[in-house]
């Protein structure tokens, strides 16, 4: 089964998730600079989530680039990932509107963990489908960065009991780690091309 | 006429329907766990509908994969299906906000029945266009699962007069049946490829 | 210049326009059948507009199917059409919420007229680009149906001064005329294929 | 790495940004012509932003048409552009609802400047990737029009301290300059084709 429509549908959902978050930036009723300052936690929360959804789209792009075909199970693993990503606008807004209060910050972390878990299920199913000796399997390696991220989210949730801003800081730090695109696949792919 | 834009447009509508439903998860004004618990019927309703729209996208994907070309009538049958699917966010939200009260639960069932009917009209037009002896016609067979689903929705609506949760349970049960992707087409397609 | 991205972008806008209209179907706060009956003018208005946007997507699909390449001017003519179509959700909701009152009904007609005008500008630019002797030019012919529709919208606006429902009825009648897909292009295309 | 999904994702985001702006055109609760007149600043603001997003889509289309492949950095430069474009609906609505008051008008200008800066970063990365001697580099030239636009936005922000409508007028003037599509690339591309 081809991967064309999986990419098209996922691109659509990614595009909508990343864009509808801006609808939560409720327009203030007055036109002063102070009105904008009141929005700053919501805006900060928006920027963080925009970067996260951008990272997932970027990695998803790289991952499927190395994919040749998909199965029914992979379609559902992809939908499971999109489900958790679809909750990002909700927790983003809740966290922003409550000025990074503890409970929404924890929920944001839980959604990030579930996105990470869903992504690694998708990776594992793709590797299983293409074979452990495939280019894709080599390119993904042991996925240290993915496992590390989920660990940091866990630490962040624990630290939110000290102060929620510690957790928010860690979410931002993980985003920075990932802002560097997944060069593993790029390198392996170009490596294999030059070796031909 | 090619099927490319039909797929692209449908993917767009599917992606939007599945994503705008999350806009109905209204962000609570406070930041306690109890605020989240109050949202649980809306969330449950969202999960059910996400799975249903996912199922339809998945089956639509399989169906059009086995399709070679489309006619004007098929374009309209597809729009008729998308129309009923577009009502899913409305009934989802109504059912969730009213904690699975009887009237919204019945309406949810009616929309599911109409989606099922619209899907089978689309299947029938595609089979008619490709011929009764086509791979597509063989792959769809007698569509027992589709007919059974519409029957169960009818039973669910009847049972909603006893208690609406019986109906909701049956909607969930049908979703579970369909979570197994439509292997009929997959099997036939791969079968015909090996026999060549 | 290829037509691929023009189609992809237009499909996206069509998909969003046709889907966000359902967001205007505000979920009632109670769960009785009577709540649904109060929504009926909004629902009727939604159905009418869904059919109209579906018709435009369908005709746009046929039109670009017969198109080989596009120019900068054609991109802008297409955006001009999408602009007027983007106002359809606004007038749809205004007309529905005010139970087909005169002023919104007139505005709905004006938007329909502008969509029709924008579509015929797009057609004219495409014909000019492909040449008066092209398949596209022959397929479009004198565009009687398009001119007739704009005329009927004008009559409908005039009749809205007698009673707005006359206008609404005429809008519905034009939609019915167009529900029959644009067989002109289909016929010419298949005719030219058989003659080769 | 291919440019297919970059185009598909960007088209999705462009399509959503240009369409959700109409959601801010809140439907008046009454059905008189005067209700429509009250909406006129919001509508004017919508038209301006529709044209701007259309211009960016158009130029993006031309730019990527001349692109052969992309890198991870280019994906992020593109997301940076989409981020600033995603703020357009917010400033559009804020400016419209406050009848072009000074602070929102300044913010609108800042978003336009950032979009211009992000676009030229994207152009520079694409030129660097394709080489200074590439068709793309020649086609973009010194990007006078882009630099001029950012300069005019700066003047507009300064003039908003005299009167905000001066700024709004300049935003409109820049849009008019750009409404003429980017013929530089078109000409160079067709020029190089005829010289082959």
Automatic annotation (TrEMBL), chains A, B, C, D:
Known InterPro entries for this protein? TMEM175-like
List localization entries: Membrane
Q: Tell me the keywords, alphabetical order.
A: Ion channel, Ion transport, Membrane, Potassium, Potassium channel, Potassium transport, Transmembrane, Transmembrane helix, Transport
Main localization is membrane
Q: Name one Pfam family in it.
A: TMEM175
| Keyword Ion transport in record | yes
Question: Under what name is this protein listed?
Answer: DUF1211 domain-containing protein
* Organism for this UniProt entry: Mucilaginibacter achroorhodeus
